[in-house]
Amino acid sequence: MLSYTLKRLLQAIPTLLIVITLSFFLMRVAPGGPFDGERRLPPEIEQNLRAAYHLDEPLPMQYLRYLGDLVQGDLGPSFKYKDFDVSELISQGFPASLELGMWAILAALLIGVPLGVIAAIRRNSTADYVVMSTALAGIAVPNFVIAPLLALVFGVLLGWLPAGGWNGGAWQNLLLPVVALSIQQIAYIARMMRASMIEVLGSHYIRTARAKGLSEWKVILRHALRPAMLPVVSYLGPAIAGIITGSVVIEQIFGIPGIGRYFVQGALNRDYTLVMGTVVFYGALILLLNLIVDLLYSMLDPQIRYDD
Amino acid sequence: MSQTTPAPHGTGGASAFDGQPPAAPAGDSLTRDAWRRLKQNRAAMCSLVVMAVIVLACLIGPWLTPFELDEVDWNAIGTGPDLASGHVFGTDVNGRDLLTRTLHGGQISLSVALVATFVSLVIGVLYGAVSGYFGGRTDNLMMRFVDIMYSLPFMFLVILLMVVFGRNIFLIYAAIGAVEWLDMSRIVRGQVLALKKREFVEAAHALGVRDLQVVTRHLIPNALGPVIVYVTLTVPKVILLESFLSFLGLGVQEPLTSWGVLISEGKDMMETAPWMLLVPSAFLAATLFCLNFLGDGLRDALDPKTR
Amino acid sequence: MSPTSPMQCAASLSAGLLLSALSLSLGASGCAMAAESSSQSEQILRIANGAEPGSLDPQQTNGTWETRITRDLFEPLIAYSANGELIPGLAERWESSADGLSWTFHLREGLEWSDGTPLTAEDAVFALRRLLTPATAAHNATLYYPIVNARAVNTGALAPEQLGVAAPDAQTLTITLSHPSATLEQTLAMSEAAPLPRHVIAAKGADWTRPANMATSGAFVLKTWSPQAEIRLTPNPRYHAADTVALDEVVYLPIEESHAALNRFRAGEVEIAYGVPASHYAWIQDNLAAALQTYPILGEYFYVFNLREGSPVADQRIRRALNLATRREVITERILGMGQIPSWHFVPKALGEHQGARFDFADWSMDRRMAKARELMDDAGYGPDTPLELTLRYNTLEDHKKIAVALGAMWKPLGVKVTLTNTEAAVHYRDLALGDFEVGRYGMIATIADAYDFLNAFSSDNTSNAPGLSSPTYDALIEAAAREGDVGTRQRQLHDAEQYLLDNDVVLPLYDYVTSSLVDPAISGWAPNALDVHPSRYLQLDTSH
After folding, report:
1. What's the rounded Cα separation, in Å, for the pair A111 and A89?
2. Model ipTM?
3. Which residues belong to any copy of the ABC transmembrane type-1 domain (chain B) (predicted)?
4. Residue of B nearest to A187 (CA)
């Protein structure tokens, strides 16, 4: 297991290099540049800007320069947020995104998994329909609707919680964005949990366990839960990477200083260094989380091994 | 770890040996059997009917309403539902009939959902199953490719597609299908990794069944539960993703519209003109409910173990 | 230009220059208020500021959400009153030679940076040289090209020391121009022209804008800066008018979503929200009327026609027909409804001194316009049976979409079949600049209150010349205005240039921008003005509310 993990971590380097290379050229081939705006810059000024960011060099040179800087841990200055390096922007914004995202995932797991299990046990009962319909409502309403709705109702009309702001991550400020962010995840997890629990409960060895006279709850908790978590865990790898890197919608509605906005704004502004910074960061997270997922598989199901 | 190891056979997993290998029988009997079981599921049948009504309404509805898709009623800009004027669900911010636009938008959204979901289903399931089944180096390579696809900046991918192929509605399907299969492949691979060590798969091997058949006849059918659920979760995702592509200029262009676009237009009006949000949302929600109950019914009907 | 009174607030410097029609009578209160303000509770002003600033280096900023902050931190030689009029800033007076080519600025006595270092004319020289240094890559550098050698310095041909600015003594700055400039005072009032703390920049380099390092000359100092969260300013005790500053703290919140800003305002979490959502405008008029401030600004919303060969609108008859058939009041009143001013002109009306140019059909009835438009289309060979297919491009935004849809509907009766195409801003403006469009949305907001700023965009060699206008007549007018020192002559030249744009239907102007803000009625010292400048030093909260 250890050698497998080490091997995967080593493989991450060439994988990331491919991601960086593809993204770099993809981004630079796309039309529109960092200085294309409503007011076009006079040629003298644009020339000064291009020189300041080395954009006047041939593209392969710029690529090598980027790689060289990256090896030294330098992600370069942002085009848009000129007073900060990209690494500073990410390291200052990530804690907020992480805090929000971890709470949302925790809430989604703690609520979604039990709901899915209950719905699976009481399959086709009223409880099942109520739980699943509620979950569906969570899926049917996109978060760009839920977030402003929550802010409006609880922040403005009722005045129970702040309508926005971060305030260092105080719980009052966290509550609404966590709810907005987790509703959909709860629904996803509950739905998937129900489906895979039904599969597992119908399997041969669960029947055997029941036949041995174990109580239903014992059967579920000791024998069915872990294997039933498998698809949920598969889903969670990439999902967690997405959630802890923030959501531009949630951040804009609630005024959260996270990094989700950088993924969208960076691309829209053609903030090349910022885009590359987010790509490197997100790519590394994806690789790490999918590795963790693969390791978790063999804990959930001892038959899954990666020996070679 | 050992004290919680579950079953007597020392296995866990999404499905298991069940007396005889639960392979899906081929051909007619599968569909006929499944259909018979599906018909007994009341929630699924209701959903089927409602779904059919929605699809029909979207297909022929725009012809029946007294307004054109792009017809501006200068005297009814942003007005609420009103029977007298004929705008039964109100108008949008430009004074265009909301019902007409919602039904029209349904054509786009439903077709995006259908095609993109199908593409992601086919690619994702096959890719994931092959990767999980062969394992080892193949699996490693295939999954690193998935990781790379996850990491590429989606927006630039889309913008480049637009440059290369021009603005084309089918591109939406391609672009969406091209990203949505990733999750599916990870899920299917996880299931297959667990399933392939089960007795019925080994039994199939022993009987000399070829690899491809093992995958399609034994592994995929047994991973169907999570797959079907994930498909029903993919539908709202692609419908809303389409509205984001429209933002970039790749999606539908005015005067055409879609549910995703209508909902994102309507969200700003939730307090001042709620019908603009509620009408398209209601159609989307109804569709999702139907799909989910239909999906659950289908899963039950196709389950190799309950046969 | 004569020397002016050293007293701040004493008199507005050039009343003719700016918008006196707009300014309310709040100018005086801005000065009087602070002295007697001794409120027991803390005066903390929270502002929903639209976006995170790209920089707090005044020479790297150009958005209103950025200069709002840098103006609180750095005072230029010439400052703005609460009404947006030019008043003495760090310079207490200044004079120019008879030919308008040499200018002398006299700094106030005893000026200090917030860290106690003396503030001298050398800091002003340093700032202007830095502004024009190529490596600074300041966006607005061309505004300063009238200064001797400015262009050569900015393009790297000459060293910054060759720029026509000098400090004969610690309190005197001289600026030499290569040709007279009617707008020098305005450009020097921009925060990018403010003196900079060269001792800090020398010591800290690129990190000089961090709260721990920055020394300021304005009414406030930078206390904290958390990107995407908040920027806090506290009063600068060494500011030359520190005793007139009432606020104890100013908090700038980078709230991008106007709906979020409205929510925060309604929840009492901010006292000022810049920008209100169009979707809630009527609602705000009904429910928050006392806080709503709507006023015209120096901005124009218009479409450009592609005049290049091969474009369907290269034919002027078609362009005129489209201009005729566009019902501007319908767009401003029914589609937008925020008090935008329909444009029969191109240069915004709020630019008080520049008026007169307008379409010759502005007073026609709609029927007459439509009849003429049909006739022109018929001449050009188009009509309901032989429709003209036209692609309308706009950058993705809800309001742009609404307007584009309305235009399509208005032109339909002429037999014009409009296809709408939206893209994100970067692609949109790139395509317009490359001439890859037929009819495209555009908007301009003035950097300084000067019609030249708008009209210069259509000179043949200007990079903003999206229509591809190539007219020696027009170029000559613009070129002459650039070098004209006489205000009257210059205005005439600019008027003629504007009329040329309208007569030739180069553009399809729709309306003059307005800006809408929510300002807590408990705030005094806040006055609407077309430049949309509201320095925090004039603001005060009535905490008894």
Report:
1. 33
2. 0.89
3. 106-295
4. B233
